[in-house]
Amino acid sequence: MKILILCTGNSCRSQMAEVFLQSFDKRLHVVSAGTQPAAKVHPATVKVMAEKGFDLTRKKPQSVQNFLQQNFDYVITVCDDAKETCPWFTGKVKTRLHIGFSDPALAQGSKEYILNEFRKTRNLIYTDFKKLYITSLKPQLEQAFS
Q1: Which of 89, 95, 118, 142 could form a disulfide with 48 if both were Cys (CB 3.0 to 4.6 A apart)?
Q2: Residue numbers annotated as active site
């Protein structure tokens, strides 16, 4: 099963979702991209994912342009801006979903406050994508491999 997680900058939410989904089941082929990719993965994303045992230090944001000619079982947008710009995605997509999260990179305040906003987003992404995996993706995989 091939899944594209789409966001604006591909520096936070989509990176988290990609790593979590891939960790749930190695049969999933998960990539993430942005409509306007950032120069690098947000340092707070790297830090809060490391707290959960995931190393994102070598991850780099990618442009959705790299995937336009590919086919996907799912394209999942995780921020409102990507949801608005996603319709121009021209690859063949069986299912489009939107599971939106606020952007923790917009948080303002102390370093600890900002890190806590990234942790909240990370935890929400984990919960929502685990639910998606259990209720939809895993049953489809089990049916396909039975």
Answers
A1: 118
A2: 7, 79, 86
